[in-house]
Write a structure and sequence with these properties.
The structure holds 2 protein chains of 2 kinds. By secondary structure, chain A is α/β, with parallel strands linked by helices. Chain A contains 9 helices and 10 strands. Chain B folds into 2 domains: about 300 residues, ABC transporter involved in vitamin B12 uptake, BtuC (Orthogonal Bundle); about 70 residues. Classes of the chains: A alpha/beta, B mainly alpha. Bound molecules: adenosine-5'-diphosphate and magnesium ion. Adenosine-5'-diphosphate binds next to β2 and α1 of chain A.
């Protein structure tokens, strides 16, 4: 299904962005973004609200077209002009604004656009595969034949994540995947990210939870106001990371920490 | 079957699992309570309407009157079938009446005036419909022109074209002995065929139900059980046999109606069992989500508009056959709204993402029952319009209320 049939070894460059910018009218959501993703690597994308993380993910998913810049995928310059194309080439995405159809059931949503047997839908096979995928994620979904509308936020999130795994993609992008999840499911998602990485796929993880990020990320890429603002590793200090995210060594987080320290000393 | 291992889909102990016939009934009641009404309101409505008209004038229920009703239903039913396609996407086509009129005019001109073979004339008319649908789809996709506006413009333009190609005489009579007119007024299925066709759906239901249960068991999935399948198949077969028996007391089952039902079944299959159908519901439910799943939303829209206009064109041919003429009046008056009303009354939501091909069949039966019943009572068309309007309003209210109830029960 992955368009390009080449096999990957750990460390191969899969995706590389050069000078990618995106304008929404007067708003510059992304400016001159550089980003490399390698096989078997988890890259965390962090930044404050409005930093442009979701926009970057949507550009790579073919939802938005970049205003300028080049994207190289598997060594070739590509143009993700539709979401279908990105999916076909092996880039799967869990969007922050979950893209699910509320009127369809879980199985239909999982397989949407990639149904088994297009002219005579194989519901049995799809349902079996759905349960298998959901069990891998330790999902708590009572029935896969209920419309998505009847599921809780966390359950929907799990469905969206399960869907991204369906096509065995080369890169998975997860935009705040654990925001609505319980303790067990969050751990499962982190496990899953590591499993996917070990299989030699690239992972882009967006999260505000620094603990999760440090637990799984090989590199931490910071975006600030739509620009690259440094690359860190799990070993980098918390202060450095926060400074890069907020853009100053003197910031609300450091001020709060200093105040707490003062109170403790008193 | 003493296997105690829970099936793949029954691991969650919080869910009540409905088994057997009682379970199926309970699940159905739950669905209705939460606002997932499906075909229930229209089935109840049809029974009510029939009861009222029968009391007012027993002729309503006479076999031959019902046969006539079915003859009348086929054309509008076909048009309503197309409307279901656009409504599923949350779009609308207001020009279906004009399209059907134009199509009957094209058939008349090509066949009677130009002497083309009849099948070619019909193909020409349907192709014209497909072209118009392509245009609507293009306007919607390229310029994001609301279908409401584009097809309103089409309503006028197509009517103009119909008048233009009919010329100053304004009416073309179709030869009474021709196969088309006989199809529209006389042709009845042989009794043996009707009975066979009445038994087939139940037999198929049994067969496919058994297949599904076997395959699900092999895959370690649960099923509602064979008793439910048998009950459904038995009910369906009995209902169809009674209907055919009753119609055979009169002239029998019109071919025209049979062809319409065949189209309903084909569309139903396409909507429920193919990738295209799944995509239709997805685009109607959440177009952006569908797009992000890799569905070509524009192509799905195009297909819906093309289907709608083509069905309208074919409906126009049927109407011409029924009336034995292609005139300036064809497709005007209440044709447009009757077809849209039929789809909505049958349970296809105006809000997109919910509906079924069967709604065209049930809805058109309601509309035709009203029209036929009022004609029997010698009431003028003024009253007919008002009553049909009221029924449509009730259907939309039921649709809106059900939607609200579904939202509060978390069923989209
Ligand atoms: N579709 C859009 N139209 C206009 N502006 C947008 C759109 N999507 C995002 N933006 C703007 O782009 C900026 C980055 O947003 P986003 O990528 O969602 O940030 P985040 O890092 O929180 O995910 C914000 O200023 C936002 O207002
Ligand atoms: Mg975001």
């Amino acid at each position: 299904m992955n368009g390009t049939g080449e096999s990957l070894t750990k460390g191969d460059l899969i995706l590389s962005l050069r000078g990618v910018s995106k304008q929404f009218g007067a708003v510059t959501a992304l400016a001159d973004i550089e980003l490399d993703i390698h096989a078997g690597e988890v890259v965390a994308l962090v930044g404050d609200n409005g930093a442009g993380k979701s926009t970057l993910v949507k550009v790579l998913a073919g939802v938005h077209q970049p205003t300028s810049g080049t994207i190289q995928y598997m060594g070739r310059e590509v143009n993700f002009d539709t979401p279908g194309k990105a999916l076909e080439m092996g880039i799967a995405t869990v969007f922050q604004d979950l893209a699910l159809c509320e009127n369809l059931d879980v199985v239909a949503n999982l397989f949407l656009g990639h149904e088994v047997n297009p002219w005579r839908l194989d519901e049995v096979q799809m349902e079996v595969r759905a349960w298998t995928l959901l069990q891998e994620l330790a999902a708590r979904i009572p029935s896969v034949r209920e419309p998505i509308a009847s599921l809780s936020g966390g359950q929907r999130q799990t469905v969206a994540i399960a869907r991204s795994l369906l096509l065995d993609p080369k890169i998975i992008m997860l935009d705040e995947p654990t925001a609505a999840l319980g303790v067990a499911q969050t751990a499962e998602v982190l496990n899953l990210i590591e499993r996917v990485r070990d299989r030699g796929h690239g992972v882009i993880l967006i999260s505000h939870n620094m603990e999760d990020v440090r637990a799984v990320a090989d590199r931490i890429v910071v975006l600030r106001l739509g620009r690259n603002n440094g690359v860190f590793t799990a070993e980098s200090s918390h202060q450095d990371l926060v400074a890069a995210i907020t853009g100053a060594t003197e910031n609300s987080v450091s001020r709060r920490a200093a105040r707490k320290l003062e109170e403790a000393e008193r | 079957m003493t296997d105690t291992r829970p099936t793949l889909d029954r691991a969650d102990t919080r869910v009540r699992h409905d088994e057997g016939i009682a379970g199926a009934v309970r699940a159905f009641i739950d669905r209705v309570r939460s606002g997932d009404l499906g075909m229930l309101p229209v089935a109840v409505g049809l029974l009510l309407i029939s009861a009222v008209f029968t009391v007012l004038n027993p002729v309503f229920l006479a076999p031959n009157n019902l046969v006539n009703l079915l003859f009348d239903a086929a054309a509008v039913g076909l048009i309503a079938l197309g409307v279901v396609c656009v409504l599923l996407l949350g779009e609308i086509d207001l020009s279906i009446g004009s399209m059907s009129g134009l199509s009957s005019a094209i058939t008349g001109v090509l066949w009677v005036q130009s002497g083309l073979p009849l099948p070619l004339a019909i193909v020409g008319a349907v192709l014209a419909g497909a072209l118009v649908g392509l245009l609507y789809g293009f306007l919607r996709n390229r310029f994001e022109m609301p279908s409401f506006v584009a097809t309103l413009a089409g309503l006028l333009a197509l009517l103009g074209l119909q008048l233009y190609i009919l010329g100053p005489t304004g009416s073309i009579n179709l030869p009474f002995t021709s196969p088309l007119v006989r199809f529209g007024q006389l042709l009845i299925m042989p009794a043996w065929l009707s009975y066979i066709l009445a038994v087939l759906p139940g037999a198929f239901l049994l067969y496919s139900g058994a297949q599904t249960i076997r395959r699900r068991a092999e895959a370690n999935l649960s099923s509602a059980g064979m008793s439910v399948v048998i009950a459904k198949a038995a009910l369906l077969t009995i209902a169809l046999l009674v209907a055919v028996y009753y119609l055979e007391l009169g002239r029998g089952v019109p071919w025209m109606f049979g062809v319409f039902v065949l189209f309903v079944m084909v569309l139903n299959y396409a909507l429920t069992r193919t990738q295209w159908g799944r995509s239709m519901f997805a685009v109607g439910g959440n177009a952006e989500a569908a797009r992000r799943s890799g569905i070509n939303v524009q192509r799905i829209r195009l297909s819906a508009f093309v289907l709608c206009s083509s069905f309208a064109a074919l409906g126009g041919v049927f109407a011409a056959a029924r009336l034995a003429s292609a005139s300036q009046q064809a497709g005007t008056g209440d044709v447009n709204l009757n077809a849209i009303a039929a789809a909505v009354i049958g349970g296809t939501s105006l809000f997109g993402g919910r509906g079924s091909a069967w709604s065209a069949l049930l809805g058109v039966l309601v509309i035709m029952a009203i029209s036929n019943g009022l004609t029997l009572l010698n009431l003028s068309s003024s009253l007919r319009y008002m009553i049909t309007g009221a029924v449509l309003a009730i259907a939309v209210i039921v649709d809106s209320l059900a939607r609200r109830s579904r939202a509060s029960h978390g069923r989209a």
